[in-house]
């Protein structure tokens, strides 16, 4: 650790302890490269920590060395006229967007609590929120990446331009790899203009079926920004306690907003309410920040969009369903014994599987975490390729070991 | 041409694909000696036209046993020599696996065999108000498998993204014949994003035989403008203003003087022959929003120097503009016996700089270069005209292309926006990527193809190999 100086190597504190025993805070990719070479030689497992919101929920045991990118949090370049930004992985999505907003632009990927989600975690743990419906996820917006791989090699993929097919797509390989293939140091994104106006239609329903039918009508008729159905446990936050709330966001110029507002009220048979500007933003933030990492047991379903209502039917938990995407986050409120948690997860998986989908656990409380499988196993053929990929990119097996799909 | 393949193996392959599925006569193989990158030519020893994934798998197993390399091919419309056989005696063409298997409107998905033609997918769903977004200019012929290999784009990718944003799952036959299902039909992925790795891998991971694609809802309406400018500088200025204003058009395409003339001769669009450049600007979305957006676009185009901004009056006029744009390459055939095109990318704000460079290169090499390109993305398509019958012209055309690409990279851009590296630009890869980057890419390739038998000699230059492709490997006069 001598190379970094004593002030940047320390014992893990509070929340960090769930993820790592010791923490280092390198200043640049070269220092990370040194650390990786040392860890490979000594067989020490390491992992990038982000802001601890992903890793601490899914690691069964801490790694020896946590890499905090707290000191690598600069925006290297923002080119407003090119709609691109280059940022170090340690900056939070919130801080990045605060800077972009000065040019009326944004990175339209909206993880829960963007101020405590780093860009590195956004990419590595594939976080996404309501805007995935209209803007895609980090997968769709990441146009370039730097990471430090095995042997301390600093690897660059993609580039700074919005369209680029030179070389293999290392952004896709690193995206959603949960830190198991290397340490992401820089991400390059295409960004988007902030829409001129934004409004929200909120439509409460007593029955889930009716809510999803209403959502389907909106989806069919309007080019929405996002479309959610939240279960009664969450609906209180949107003034619809005890009901299933359809929350549809739309954006555009005043004419487009007016038209979509009118149309959505018609489609909701007059039951809905329209919120504009500040109120709309508040509802949006509440929706984005529904926190599924805090519960004793939470998961994300991915199924065919039309199968979402049947999949979520009679789920004993609260959910936020991204109705246009076929994706839903689900949380149990009460603590679970390991037995009952395993049973619940098995039932959820079976539901997802029945509709050609799958399920990933987002968080589980510490007593039950060790006995649960977080990732859905892919097909045998795909898993074999994934094992080869892990072996190729991490021959020493040090990057966030034993945390990912199939024990990778 | 005498086949280098053991006759017994040829028999075995014929038994798998049937006699109608194998082509081994030299005269018939000539059609397959190049794709849209016509500078280099090399015919395969045999061509196979399998009809099913089982046939593809059995073929690859047989080739694997003998250690024989192969090159996959869709419709052969690629522009970077991706389907050029280099040390690969067997070509596997997916054109007979062209079925659209299932259309699922409720979930906005379509499942197709990889030989399905791009435009056929949209044609199959448009009556219900849907479309498949990536729309390369060759979409009347090119296949979904080829699009997946090249991660193809098209004019409307400015708003809707390229192929990788629209492919959810693929069935891939690995070079040893194993069939793997990657991804699926749902949005999230289990484990590593191997679908994302396969899209854009230019046939070097095996043969994609099936894919699940996203469908998009047709926007309520379009407004397509033809803006005429005195020069390319003012046209690029308009592009920057529109993009920076927060409007995201469906497409912004530019054609310069040379292209305008060729296109007008071919399609009689009525372009102003005195114009230095035109932009085709297409807005799409809700009818109610167009009035405001349209007037802003017209205003910005005029402020940037447009002499005239015309709105396509009806669908027929709109289609004529797109026909002119998408068939511009074909129209250029009238200007010179041969052409090659590049598809370098620059940050949008550097468009005026790169266009100046292209004009200097044109003078330096004494070759005409036309420009027709995706201005909104900064994705160039300089069309370099030459005559291969004249001594030295091929080399000059290649040299001009290399200089342009080098300038793109120096401006912070890329060697290719949508055509792929293929055989054409493999020598330029070190301009963009370090030896470590390339080594990591090679490690990724070996995950799928450890023996490098799928489309060898593409994308990644061999370490230590001579990376300068000074002249075409072999030229066959047409």
- Please give the CATH architecture of the domain at 75-193 in chain A: 2-Layer Sandwich
Rounded average pLDDT of chain B: 93
In round numbers, the mean pLDDT of chain A is 93
Query: What's the Cα radius of gyration of chain A?
Result: 21 Å
CATH topological fold name of the domain at 75-193 in chain A? Uridine Diphospho-n-acetylenolpyruvylglucosamine Reductase, domain 3
Choose one word for the global shape of chain B: globular
| Straight-line N-to-C gap of chain A | 27 Å
- CATH-assigned fold name of the largest domain in chain B: Uridine Diphospho-n-acetylenolpyruvylglucosamine Reductase, domain 3
How many H/I helices of chain A?
A: 15
Structural class of chain A: alpha+beta
Provide the spatial order of strands within the biggest beta sheet of chain B. Answer: 15-12-14-13-17-18-16
Low-pLDDT runs of 5+ residues of chain B are 466-478
In percent terms, what proportion of residues of chain A is strand? 15-25%
- Percent range of helical residues of chain B: 25-40%
| Percentage beta strand of chain B | 15-25%
Instruction: Tell me the strand order in the biggest sheet of chain A.
Output: 15-12-14-13-17-18-16-19
What would CATH call the architecture of the largest domain in chain B?
2-Layer Sandwich
Number of strands of chain B: 18
The largest inter-chain interface, given as chain pair and residues per side, is: A-B, 84 and 90 residues
Radius of gyration of chain B: 22 Å
User: Helix/strand-derived class of chain B?
Assistant: alpha+beta
């Amino acid at each position: 650790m001598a190379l970094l100086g004593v002030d940047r190597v320390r014992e893990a504190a509070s929340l960090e302890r769930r993820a790592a025993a010791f923490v280092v805070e390198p200043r640049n990719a070269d220092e990370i490269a040194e650390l990786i070479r040392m860890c490979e030689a000594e067989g020490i497992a390491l992992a990038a920590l982000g802001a601890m919101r992903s890793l601490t929920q899914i690691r069964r045991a801490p790694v020896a060395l946590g890499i905090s990118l707290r000191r690598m949090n600069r925006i290297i370049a923002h080119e407003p006229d090119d709609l691109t930004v280059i940022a170090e992985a340690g900056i939070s999505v919130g801080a990045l967007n605060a800077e972009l907003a000065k040019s009326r632009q944004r990175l339209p990927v909206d993880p829960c609590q963007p101020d405590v989600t780093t860009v590195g975690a956004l990419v590595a743990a594939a976080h996404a929120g309501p805007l995935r419906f209209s803007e895609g996820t980090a997968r769709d917006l990441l146009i370039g990446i730097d990471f430090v791989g095995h042997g301390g090699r600093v690897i660059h993929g993609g580039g700074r331009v919005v369209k680029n097919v030179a070389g293999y797509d290392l952004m896709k390989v690193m995206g959603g790899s949960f830190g198991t293939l290397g340490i992401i140091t820089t991400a390059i994104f295409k960004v988007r203009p902030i829409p001129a106006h934004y409004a929200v239609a909120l439509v409460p329903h007593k029955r889930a079926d009716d809510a999803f039918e209403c959502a389907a009508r909106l989806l069919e008729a309007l080019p929405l920004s996002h479309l959610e159905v939240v279960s009664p446990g969450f609906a209180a936050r949107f003034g619809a306690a005890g009901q299933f709330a359809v929350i549809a966001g739309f954006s555009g110029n005043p004419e487009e907003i007016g038209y979509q507002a009118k149309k959505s009220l018609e489609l909701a048979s007059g039951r809905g309410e329209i919120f504009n500007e500040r109120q709309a933003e508040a509802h949006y933030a509440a929706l984005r920040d529904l926190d599924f990492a805090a519960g004793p047991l939470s998961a994300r379903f991915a199924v065919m969009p039309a199968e979402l209502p049947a999949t979520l039917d009679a789920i004993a938990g609260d959910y936020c369903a991204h109705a246009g995407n076929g994706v839903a986050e689900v949380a149990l409120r009460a603590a679970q014994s390991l037995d009952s948690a395993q049973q619940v997860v098995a039932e959820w998986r079976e539901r997802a599987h029945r509709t050609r989908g799958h399920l990933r656990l987002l968080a589980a409380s510490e007593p039950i975490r060790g006995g649960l499988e977080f990732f859905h196993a892919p097909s045998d053929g795909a898993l074999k390729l994934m094992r080869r990929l892990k072996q190729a990119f991490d021959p020493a097996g040090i990057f966030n070991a034993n945390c990912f799909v199939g024990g990778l | 041409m005498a086949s280098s393949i053991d006759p017994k193996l040829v028999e075995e392959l014929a038994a798998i694909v049937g006699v109608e599925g194998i082509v081994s006569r030299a005269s018939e193989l000539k059609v397959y000696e190049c794709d849209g990158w016509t500078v280099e030519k090399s015919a395969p020893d045999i061509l196979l036209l399998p009809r099913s994934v089982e046939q593809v798998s059995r073929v690859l197993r047989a080739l694997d046993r003998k250690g024989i390399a192969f090159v996959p091919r869709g419709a052969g419309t690629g522009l970077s020599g991706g389907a050029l056989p280099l040390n690969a005696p067997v070509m596997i063409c997916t054109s007979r696996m062209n079925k659209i298997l299932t259309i699922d409107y409720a979930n906005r998905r379509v499942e197709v065999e990889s030989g399905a033609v791009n435009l056929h997918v949209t044609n199959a769903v448009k009556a219900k108000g849907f479309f498949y977004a990536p729309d390369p200019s060759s979409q009347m012929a090119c296949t979904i498998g080829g699009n997946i290999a090249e991660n193809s784009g098209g004019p409307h990718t400015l708003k809707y993204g390229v192929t990788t944003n629209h492919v959810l799952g693929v069935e891939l036959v690995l070079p040893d014949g194993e069939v793997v299902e990657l991804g699926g039909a749902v949005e999230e992925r289990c484990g590593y994003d191997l679908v994302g790795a396969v899209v854009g891998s230019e046939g070097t991971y095996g043969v994609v035989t099936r894919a699940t694609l996203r469908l998009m809802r047709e926007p309520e309406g379009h407004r397509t403008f033809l803006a005429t400018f005195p020069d390319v500088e003012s046209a690029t200025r308009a592009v920057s203003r529109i993009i920076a204003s927060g409007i995201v058009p469906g497409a912004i395409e530019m054609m310069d003087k040379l292209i305008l003339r060729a296109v007008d001769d071919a399609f009689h669009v009525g372009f102003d022959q005195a114009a230095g450049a035109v932009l085709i600007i297409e807005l799409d979305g809700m009818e109610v929003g167009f009035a405001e957006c349209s007037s802003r676009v017209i205003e910005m185009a005029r402020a940037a120097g447009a002499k005239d901004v015309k709105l396509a009056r009806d669908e027929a006029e709109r289609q004529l503009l797109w026909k002119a744009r998408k068939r511009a390459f074909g129209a250029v055939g009238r200007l010179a016996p041969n052409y090659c095109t590049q598809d370098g990318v620059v940050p949008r704000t550097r468009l005026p700089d790169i266009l100046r460079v292209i004009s200097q290169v044109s003078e330096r090499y004494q070759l005409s270069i036309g420009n027709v390109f995706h201005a909104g993305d900064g994705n160039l398509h300089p069309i370099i005209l030459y005559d291969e019958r004249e001594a030295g012209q091929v080399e000059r055309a290649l040299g001009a292309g290399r200089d342009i690409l080098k300038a793109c990279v120096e401006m912070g851009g890329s060697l290719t926006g949508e055509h792929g590296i293929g055989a054409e630009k493999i020598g330029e890869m070190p301009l963009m990527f370090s030896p470590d980057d390339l080594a990591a890419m090679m490690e990724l390739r070996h995950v799928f193809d450890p023996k490098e038998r799928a489309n060898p000699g593409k994308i990644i230059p061999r370490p230590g190999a001579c990376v300068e492709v000074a002249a075409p490997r072999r030229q066959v006069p047409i």
